[in-house]
């Protein structure tokens, strides 16, 4: 048995580490890549994800490619998936690309009982030359690791997972429709798989990735949506899990969405606190455009205060807008005097701006839709009408959407596009 002094030394070394991970024999480890030698008590390194250990098993029964016109988001999946097991004793195991199919999990797996689960969503695109790219996968890996730490799941080498994603996409790249506006949606997921009941960090986990060909979110053009300002429910609270992409964030929102639909609205607008601070639009980040007294145009989004998910599209929109505002990377069509603000904003301010003619537009941002314009918000029994252009978009969302989609589709060269294959 280790002495009290040794135990304190070990505890100190663990608590000073950058991230926290699962427990093993009652001790909480600093990361998924650290364990304790059972004989000496010394900390030892455990394997992280290694691309060189990838095993590939090709399906014997490839599925026929679906008609592009019949694609429904998230309903069709490619022939293969990626799996990577993890255990507290052995670290990350060998990655495997294998035929898409059911997972074998015990009924007592912690994911089923304590929602030890997180996921990501990103896309791969094919440009006119046939080159396949991913859009900002480093941001998804960073957020995935952040989410993992929040629910005591193991962290991992994001760069290694990106390389494995490339291999999976190369395997199924023929599933990406060769039609403008279409892409391959990629869903990395990490779950706790330990076969034991009890609320604690799991000692077994599984990272897996599935892919789905998808079409444009608005195939016949932009259709502004009507929102219902939800005051009956809260999506998140300070110190909670709102800033993490966990499955536990999404299931409770379905009831609010159903109630909004029953009232005749497309989606709900999450409001927080007695002052009804605007947070998110359904499962998207929120953007509001206001006209200031001096004629400047202000693009406002709620700050990352722990309740807001740090969306990749959100960050992309803000980065492009700031590049334009600074003059470093002007975007054709955007207002010349543009202010970008990450600040709290309430429904009272938005309502007053609408009444005073200063509300320019309101839209959501997310991976699936990129930009989702809003033309009406139901709030406390009244409808606030929001201006939209003939194409359904506004003077800020339209040029930013055009530029962002240009980067994603490859018509605009940008370091955010990560090459998977040249042909």
From TrEMBL:
Modified residues (N6-(pyridoxal phosphate)lysine): 245
GO BP of this protein: L-leucine biosynthetic process; L-valine biosynthetic process
Top-level division of the source organism's lineage: Eukaryota
Gene Ontology MF terms in the entry: branched-chain-amino-acid transaminase activity
GO cellular component, one term: mitochondrion
Gene3D superfamilies: 3.30.470.10, D-amino Acid Aminotransferase, subunit A, domain 2
Keywords: Amino-acid biosynthesis, Aminotransferase, Branched-chain amino acid biosynthesis, Pyridoxal phosphate, Transferase
InterPro entries cross-referenced by the UniProt entry: Aminotrans_IV, Aminotransferase-like, B_amino_transII, BCAT-like_C, BCAT-like_N, BCAT_family
Swiss-Prot/TrEMBL cofactor(s): pyridoxal 5'-phosphate
Name of the protein in question: branched-chain-amino-acid transaminase
Protein source organism: Steccherinum ochraceum
Phylogenetic lineage: Eukaryota, Fungi, Dikarya, Basidiomycota, Agaricomycotina
